[in-house]
Amino acid sequence: MKHILLIATGGTIASKHTGTGLSPQISGEELLSYIPEAQKTCQIDVIQPFSLDSTNVSWQQWLLLSELIQKNYDFYDGFVLCHGTDTMAYTSAALSYLVMNSKKPIIITGAQKPIDLPDTDARTNLTDSIRFAADDRSHDVCIVFGGSVIAGTRAKKEKTKSYNAFSSINYPPIAVIQDRRIIFYIDDKGQNKKEVVFSDRLGGKVFLYRLIPGSDGEILDILIDRYDALIIESFGVGGIPDYGDGSIKAAIDRWISAGKIVIMATQVTNEGSDMSVYEVGHAVKNIYDLPESYDMTLEAVIAKTMWILGKTKDRKEFREIFYTTVNHDLLFLPE
């Protein structure tokens, strides 16, 4: 019988109504009591490092979770994390980098409604997650939600209320779970022969700058001393607008001259960036040789940037690591 560690961290799945709205109130042990059938399939222990609305989860909690998994890694066959949905995709991406090449499954799940309600997705999601964590074919960091199994670096929350809240972006789902059956689309556990690698540092000084029509680059001068990396969320396949003053390009030049990391991403969810397509992107790409997100999710780009900054701030080294595929995060590689 498999031995699974359930890590409860709060979120909607563990919330109850209060006078000021939903708030995490339900313990990990109580969560488990709502799914007694799951305890017949495997042995489950429970630990609760914190209880937070996931809006309040930051990179400090990611490091805490990674450390907790590392300490318990040799004692369990798999891990299930109950987490709020709002930042779940960020946490799943971060753990994909902090716990690389895991032969054991690290499953993240949650719910759109609390587990103690009669009409909820929580009991199904948690049961599915434990079932998937106990499967011999499961490995690495995944989100299990709404019957889909999504690679940890490919998930995005696209619906605020519906039960099928998460999509797998630019990559197929790993599996689906239907009628207690796991149907794998991608069964690649035996292909990765590398040993698990844990990281214990993140560089949290990353700023996301979303362009809008008429954006002024001078705002970036205020931020340059406070952040080590700038991710520019551009339009379409990627480009830098010029409204006649050249302020954004000038700001990029100052960031790079100051030794900072500047990355180009896109506001468009699907199909990724490619700055070589249009003149507005091609010119900037040639001048600054900026790394770009390509088919990565924005959540993965942010988490990966923090992870690399925990290792190096050297632009060449950063670029090499950034373009190394981790847990299916990147299909398109630059020539």
List segments where confidence is low: pLDDT < 50 over at least 5 consecutive residues. none
Shape: globular
- Following the backbone from N to C, one meets helices and strands in this order, namely EEEHEHEHEEHEEEEEEEEHEHEHHH
Total helices: the number is 9
Nearest-angstrom radius of gyration?
A: 21 Å
Strand-residue proportion: 15-25%
How far apart are the termini?
A: 47 Å
**Assembly context of the chains:** single chain
The strand line-up of the biggest sheet is 4-1-5-7-8-9-12-13
Structural class call reads alpha/beta
What average pLDDT do the residues reach? 95
Number of strands: 17
Largest sheet: 8 strands, mixed
What can you tell me about this protein's structure?
- This protein is of the alpha/beta class.
- Helices cover 27% and strands 22% of the residues.
- The strands form 5 sheets. Strands 4-1-5-7-8-9-12-13 form an 8-stranded mixed sheet, with helices on both faces.
- Helix 3 crosses helix 8.
- It is globular.
